[in-house]
Design a protein that fits this description.
Layout (H helix, E strand, L loop, with lengths): L2 H6 L5 H14 L6 H12 L4 H11 L6 H11 L1 H48 L4 H50 L10 H18 L4 E7 L2 H8 L1 H19 L4 E4 L4 E6 L4 H16 L2 E3 L6 E4 L2 E7 L6 H17 L5 E3 L3 H6 L1
Parallel strand pairs: 6-7
Antiparallel strand pairs: 1-3, 1-6, 2-3, 4-5
The structure holds ligand C2E.
Ligand C2E binds next to α10 and β4.
């Protein structure tokens, strides 16, 4: 699912979204299978999305959204369904390759058994002390040896082809793995990669007895910007902010798109002081440029971001860390936006 829908499904509005999806499905006589539900949740959650537009087009043309059509739409528009398709396809290629190598190895085994039998017969005949027999034995052996050589050459060729195919498959699987962890719009790590990265960073911090810091960054007034200029420009704003965060906040840290217009940076083994300095650099860089509408050169104004960060307390869970960073972000928004705020320590949160 896209990041926005994933976020929407984890928000207080999620039940309403799910109910609307079911109502629309019932109205269009679509069975509530898991795949269909996923598709129609996307439909109601992102009415401007290419998927929703395609469904609207099909409905306007009087088409029924059958299960087969649902599968096709999911494969085309839902990135995870496409990934699953890619993985299945890679698995098919792999299994065909393995079948052909197994068959070739079986054939080579049979012919080497035959060759062994020929050798046994020949050695029996060589005990007959007759030059003609020796000559005929050598000739038979030469024929048998050539046959085995030929078959070995075929086998070698097939093995080389399979090795090359396996190399290609490994590359495409690596790509699929990378795609599954990357946000398509911004090219930053996606929510799934972030969740895993944060758990991992907490484990590493505990094992090393080190601190770590989590930051959450949100684009100020993004909704208003989107409403005023449209989703396409909204997407460009997301890419612009992501490019600044990726340039200044990633490596060796992890920068991710956390939700719709929210980003996160995990600072492994780094303290709040370092995080604050990086966040301030990002904040200043983002607002240092005035964006232009590329088609008309119209001035779109400047973008600002608010940030919150929390330094992890030894043993603190990922969820608590996110909550504290989020609360700090909220404090930045509340204090007027375009600023960076440190989270309160856990004790203060507990006492509040
Ligand atoms: P993009 O449109 O794919 O552009 C990628 C990069 O190509 C930009 O990275 C920039 O280095 C370069 N580039 C593209 N178009 C222009 C241009 O007209 N003039 C200049 N000087 N360079 C250009 P950058 O700046 O980090 O931006 C990343 C993304 O942020 C862009 O991806 C775009 O989606 C968005 N963005 C940045 N500035 C603007 C802007 O002024 N207007 C709009 N509408 N979007 C912008």
């Amino acid at each position: 699912m896209s990041v926005d829908v994933q976020t929407a499904l984890r928000s207080p509005k999620s039940y309403e979204l799910a109910r609307t999806a079911l109502e629309v499905m019932e109205a269009h006589q679509v069975w509530p299978t898991v795949r269909n539900f996923e598709l129609w949740v996307h439909y109601v959650a992102e009415k401007e999305s290419p998927l929703a537009q395609e469904i609207d087009r099909l409905l306007a043309a009087g088409e029924a959204i059958t299960e087969t059509m649902g599968e096709a739409l999911a494969a085309q528009f839902l990135p995870e369904a496409k990934l699953n398709g890619d993985i299945l396809e890679a698995g098919d290629v792999l299994s065909k390759e393995l079948q052909s190598v197994t068959a070739a190895i079986g054939a080579a085994q049979r012919s080497s058994e035959e060759y062994g039998q020929e050798l046994a017969i020949a050695s029996g005949r060589l005990t007959e002390d007759d030059a003609n027999t020796v000559k005929s034995v050598v000739e038979d052996l030469t024929v048998a040896t050539r046959k085995v050589q030929g078959e070995n050459a075929v086998l070698e060729g097939q093995l080389a082809e399979t090795t090359a195919e396996l190399g290609r498959l490994r590359e495409s699987l690596d790509q699929v793995r990378r795609d599954a962890m990357t946000d398509g719009l911004t090219n930053l790590a996606n929510r799934k990669a972030f969740d895993e990265g944060l758990e991992h960073a907490c484990e590493i911090a505990d094992a090393a007895g080190e601190g770590m810091t989590l930051a959450i960054i949100d684009i100020d007034h993004f909704k208003g910007f989107n409403d005023a200029w449209g989703h396409q420009i909204g997407d460009q704003v997301l890419r612009y902010v992501a490019s600044v965060i990726g340039r200044m906040g990633a490596h060796p840290r992890m920068a991710a798109r956390y939700g719709g217009e929210e980003f996160a940076i995990i600072f492994p083994t780094e303290h709040g002081r370092t995080a604050k300095a990086v966040l301030e650099e990002i904040r200043e860089e983002v607002s240092s440029r005035s964006l232009k509408r590329r088609s008309t050169n119209e001035d779109l104004g400047t973008i600002t971001v608010s940030a919150g960060y929390a330094e992890r307390i030894a043993g603190e869970g990922a969820m608590s860390l996110v909550e504290r960073a989020d609360a700090a972000l909220y404090a930045s928004k509340h204090a007027g936006r375009n600023r960076t705020t440190a989270a309160q320590p856990m004790a203060a949160v507990a006492a509040a």
